[in-house]
Amino acid sequence: MRLKDKVALVTGAGSGMGAAIAQGYLKEGARVIFADINIESAQKVAQDSGASEDMWLATYIDVGNQANVKECIEQTIQKFGQLDILVANAGITIRKPFLELTEEDYDRVMQVNAKGVFLCSQEAARVMARQGGGSIIHISSTTSVIAEPNAVQYGASKGAVASMTRHMASDLGTMKIRVNAIAPGTIHTNLTGARLSDREVMERESGLTILNRVGETDDIVGPAIFLASDESSFITGTHIFVDGGYSVK
Question: Which reaction does it catalyse (predicted)?
Fold first, then answer.
């Protein structure tokens, strides 16, 4: 078990990639906090993992609210006494043509996707610094480097995540805190399910990749385990693109 005796906090763990990562960490021996703005979903995903309740905690988090982020991390320490891994996964998207975007649309996406990563990473790093190290993993996106239609604010938020990953790695390296990012391409989740249910959309998205398919949530789990484990102890400040080759076509 590659994560035995580790404690991991996964935001957005009530569904999609976050749920898959959190359950994957449990299988690798970690104790896991399933944090989500929908606590009922987080609770169900944790229970469905089949792990004993002493191995997990399901809790509410609003990643864009500093007080709430602090409270979530305090609950983590109270329950498990440490925090070794953060996966800043929680995110939202609003797909609209650029000229139809509102200021509220932009602010909401940035609040969750960019500010949320900043707040969670900062609070987690404070704990990790006292402990003598840890691993922070951001969920970025191929849109951080590749333009897509109707995704201006989403791409901006993920570009911010990509930049923060590098800068945080630089600032935290002397504290033995590694900071890396996973940049998924199109992944079949609850957020993309409606769009990908259209056969033409699915065929188009699949055709954009070298492997001729979209990703599944399980495709993210292996890289997330690797970056959380000691196997990646000399890796920091980097992006792992999990996109079926989309970014190199």
Answer: D-glucose + NADP(+) = D-glucono-1,5-lactone + NADPH + H(+); D-glucose + NAD(+) = D-glucono-1,5-lactone + NADH + H(+)
C-alpha 239/C-alpha 184 separation (Å) is: 10
Check: CB of residue 137 under 8 Å from CB of residue 85.
Answer: yes
Following CA atoms 98, 99, 103, 106 in sequence, which dihedral angle do they give, to the nearest 10 degrees?
-10
The residue annotated as part of the active site, out of 25, 60, 106, 154, is: 154
What span, in angstroms and rounded, lies between the C-alpha atoms of 41 and 59?
10
**Domain contains 2:** no
Burial class of residue 43 (count of CB atoms within 10 Å of its CB; 0-12, 13-18, 19+): middle
pTM: 0.96
The Cα 186–Cα 243 span in angstroms is 7
User: In the Cβ-directed half-sphere of 21, how many Cα atoms lie within 13 Å?
Assistant: 32
For the chain, 249 residues long, the average pLDDT of each consecutive 10-residue run is 97 97 98 98 97 97 98 98 98 94 97 98 98 98 92 96 98 98 89 74 84 93 98 98 91
Task: Please report, for the domain that includes residue 145, its CATH number.
Answer: 3.40.50.720
The total domain count for the chain is: 1
Known catalytic membership, residue 106: no
